[in-house]
Specification:
The structure holds 2 protein chains of 2 kinds. By secondary structure, chain A is mostly helical. Chain A has helices at 3-18, 28-33, 35-41, 43-61, 71-91, 96-99, 106-117, 120-124, 137-140, 148-154, 158-167, 173-193, 196-206, 208-218, 228-233, 243-263. The longest helix of chain A is centred in the N-terminal third of the chain and has 21 residues, at 71-91. The termini of chain A are far apart. A 4-stranded antiparallel sheet of chain B has the order 1-32-31-30, with no helix packed on it. A 4-stranded antiparallel sheet of chain B has the order 2-3-4-5, with no helix packed on it. In chain B, strands 8-9-10-11 form a 4-stranded antiparallel sheet, with no helix packed on it. The two termini of chain B are 27 Å apart. In chain B, α1 packs antiparallel against α2. Chain B has helices at residues 2-17, 24-39, 319-323, 370-375; strands spanning 49-55, 68-73, 79-84, 88-94, 108-115, 120-122, 127-129, 135-138, 146-151, 156-169, 193-209, 217-222, 228-233, 236-241, 244-253, 266-271, 278-283, 288-292, 304-306, 327-330, 336-340, 344-349, 358-361, 385-387, 393-397, 402-407, 413-417, 433-435, 444-446, 458-461, 467-471, 476-481. Helices cover 9% and strands 39% of the residues of chain B. Chain B is mostly beta strands. The chains are: A mainly alpha, B mainly beta. The interface between A and B is large, with 54 and 48 residues.
Chain lengths: 264, 484
């Protein structure tokens, strides 16, 4: 996705949200009967809303690991996500998004996964993912404390959207919501606990398929393979660490401890 | 443009209808109207702001530790303190007014610099605690020394800044290098005398108030009793006594039993300037709660709730975010309070809860850019605001190193820029204008060319004079009004 396209997307988003009026069918009958037609008529609104949702989720997940995340910002983003979710549920478009696939190559998917699952240290180093345009180049060099900003712009709007649509290629909207709600809950649990373990949980349990890819990428062998289904099964109640997460998080913890010892 | 001619016609018509010579009042009126017409929109009583000084590095490459994070004048205005991201506090002192130079007030020069907070590591949570100074608040002066409170995310410190300009000399009990002399060699009794020395300003931490906040401290406010103060983090507010460091009282707690239900946080808090039992705190949902500490020990139930109903025509996904209040400040009189949200400044009368009495748009042209600002996180910028000494003008910052002033009486506003281009002292600042859409006039700046990296979050107004301190990312600008 070129820089210009990325910029265009945000500009579209801006114009979309400028009036702030929800562009949904007022007439209920029309809504039920011609949902598909309705979607076709205003495809951009849903796409943009989806983009906003993805952007928000990325922002929430990519919390700066070394310093405590800004709670106010997290709460505001989470509220925005809830708001979008509610509207999408009302619109009945929750299921619709699953049918949209934009045919991203598997390589892109791998790369975008990499961003999410990379350890905090690597994120802090601000590795730019090749092939993803940074349409806010001004902010690339912004050296505020939040390194997640680098990541937010690196993983441009395109990647997260595909990420999430692929994640939610599930039949059941209910499960989507459950999983989704779970990730929101987990985010707050994480913020509450603020331990490396639960942060790793956040990454691993939002979408386990990513986790698998990540282990492949980093060349680590995991003991048990956490399938797609496991994530769904556990959605109803927040779970504690799995053996997989233990493995990875232990290693990260070890790295971290060594780092502290070396530095002090 | 039309206003000018209307005034002219009115004045000359009035003059024409009276054949007598213009009265003193007429002349005054003419002068005033001409002046206000020709000087255009001015911030209050035709104040003309001039560049005075700029502090900080000239480099465009900003060292992160040098980013200014708070600015505060003391109660007399003689001292100006800044805190930065590196945990340092720099205090500037105003020179005594030079009788020969009646054109300008004294300059501010560095008085003291010290490291207030150091970075820490919370081993339990494996997280760093930033040393960035979030707020500085001065105590009123009670003796020769000055006291201020400075805070980072977790710890508040009381600093004493004292001067030393004399030292005792003439001891004969020690050698030059400090070793004690053999007592048998001491044959005379010599009383040391104080001799003048170069002025030395020392800062020493007198109290450290730690371990009382789980979340990040965003505000501190000294009570009008000058004995207690409050500190507020995202979910709790604590009341301290300045002398007691091992205990504090929790007076507000909005943490839900289940953190998953968290939807609102505290964003700012302040004590009332006159009533020592009253304080307010603002939230991320755009509400302000006024609490009375006499009502109960835990002030979870507000005495007053200030909230403006949402404008349905402006509703969007970002409505809540932009309604989040980033700063709340009482007027000096205590009758009003001002709140800053992302796009506006609102003045509230403490007697009226359902809506503000005045609303000023800071940069309404950003409303159509909210999505981009959300993407680059600018929408979460926390702008501060301040009153002038007489509560007639309010000031706040914006992007592109612009800052805005609103005159509450004349209803006029002005946009000025803090930049090194207007470097000469007593250069009057030129008002700036942002072109929202359509054809851009000469000297106007279009919204798309605004630099969102250059933001003015912290501003301060001298308590008595028309002197303002405006902080850009790493520079501190001081502006004064033009004295005739």
């Amino acid at each position: 996705m070129g820089e210009e396209e990325g910029l265009h997307q945000t500009q579209l988003l801006d114009t979309m949200f400028v009036r702030g009026l929800k562009r949904k069918c007022i007439d209920g009958e029309e809504d039920i009967e011609g949902t598909l037609a309705g979607i076709k008529a205003i495809p951009s609104y849903n796409l943009q809303r989806q983009s906003l949702l993805d952007m928000s989720l990325v922002k929430l997940q990519l919390c700066h690991m070394l310093v405590e995340p800004n709670l106010c910002r997290s709460v505001l983003i989470a509220n925005t996500v809830r708001q979008i979710q509610e509207e999408m549920t009302q619109d009945g478009t929750w299921q619709m998004i699953n049918t949209q696939s934009t045919g991203q190559t598997s390589l892109d998917r791998l790369v975008s996964t990499d961003i999410l699952c990379r350890s905090s240290r690597e994120q802090a180093e601000g590795k730019q993912v090749p092939g993803y345009s940074n349409f806010n180049k001004d902010f690339e060099d912004d050296q505020t404390q939040d390194s997640s900003e680098t990541m937010s712009t690196a993983s441009s709007v395109q990647a997260p959207r595909n990420l999430q649509s692929n994640v939610w290629e599930m039949e059941n909207a209910q499960e989507n919501r459950g999983n989704f709600q779970k990730s929101l809950d987990q985010i707050f649990e994480t913020l509450e606990n603020k331990s490396p373990n639960s942060v790793e949980d956040l990454f691993s349990e939002v979408d386990n398929s990513y986790y698998d890819l990540d282990t492949m990428l980093t060349g680590m062998m995991s003991n048990t393979k956490m399938g797609h289904c496991d994530g769904l099964e556990t959605f109803s109640s927040p779970t504690t660490t799995t053996s997989n997460s233990n493995c990875k998080s232990d290693l990260n913890e070890l790295d971290h401890i060594v780092e502290i010892l070396v530095e002090s | 443009m039309q206003k000018k001619w209307v005034v002219f016609f009115c004045v000359f018509w009035w003059q024409g209808s009276n054949d007598s010579l213009p009265s003193a009042e007429a002349v005054m009126f003419l002068k005033f109207s001409l002046r206000s017409v020709f000087y255009g929109a001015g911030g209050g009583n035709d104040i003309q702001w001039c560049f005075s000084q700029v502090k900080g590095a000239v480099d465009d490459d900003v060292a992160e530790a040098d980013i200014i994070s708070t600015v505060e004048f003391n109660h007399s205005g003689e001292l100006l303190a800044t805190g930065d991201k590196g945990g340092r506090v720099v205090i500037f002192q105003q020179e005594q007014e030079n009788k020969t130079q009646s054109h300008s007030r004294g300059e501010y020069n560095v008085y003291s610099t010290f490291q207030s907070h150091e970075p820490e590591f919370d081993y339990l949570k494996s997280l760093e605690i930033e040393e960035k100074i979030n707020k500085i608040r001065w105590l009123p002066q009670k003796n020769a020394a000055q006291f201020l409170l400075s805070t980072n995310d977790k710890t508040i410190k009381l600093w004493k800044i004292s001067e030393r300009d004399k030292r005792p000399e003439g001891y004969n009990l020690k050698e030059e290098d400090g070793r004690y002399r053999d007592p048998t060699t001491v044959t005379t009794l010599r009383v040391p005398v104080f001799r003048p020395m170069d002025l030395m300003v020392e800062a020493s931490p007198r109290r450290i108030f730690a371990n009382a906040h789980t979340y990040h401290i965003n505000s501190i406010s000294i009570n009008s009793d000058y004995e207690t103060y409050l500190s507020a983090d995202d979910l709790r507010i604590n009341l301290w006594h300045l002398e007691i460091t091992d205990r504090s009282f929790n007076i507000v707690d909005i943490k839900p039993a289940n953190m998953e239900e968290l939807t609102e946080v505290i964003t700012a808090a302040e004590f009332h300037p006159n009533s020592c039992n009253t304080f307010v705190y603002s939230s991320s949902k755009g509400t302000i709660r006024l609490c009375d500490m006499r009502a109960s020990a835990l002030c979870d139930r507000h005495s007053k709730l200030f909230e403006e109903p949402e404008d349905p025509s402006n509703r969007s996904f970002f409505s809540e975010i932009i309604s989040s209040i980033s700063d709340v400040k009482f007027s000096h009189s205590g009758r009003y309070m001002m709140t800053r949200d992302y796009l506006s400044v609102k003045i509230w009368d403490l007697n009226m809860e359902n809506r503000p009495v005045e609303t000023y748009q800071v940069h309404e042209y950003l409303r159509s850019k909210l999505c981009s600002l959300y993407e680059n996180d600018c929408i979460f910028d926390k702008f501060e605001c301040c009153w002038n000494g007489s509560d007639s003008i309010v000031m706040t910052g914006s992007y592109n190193n612009f800052f805005r002033m609103f005159d509450r009486n004349t209803k006029r506003d002005i946009t000025l820029e803090a930049s090194r281009e207007n470097n000469k002292p007593r250069t009057v600042l030129k008002p700036r204008k942002v072109c929202a859409s359509g054809k851009r006039k000469k000297d106007e700046i279009s919204v798309d060319s605004l630099d969102f990296n250059k933001k003015i979050l912290h501003t301060a107004w001298h308590p008595k004079e028309n002197i303002i301190a405006v902080a850009t990312t790493n520079n501190l600008y001081i502006f004064q009004d033009k004295m005739n």
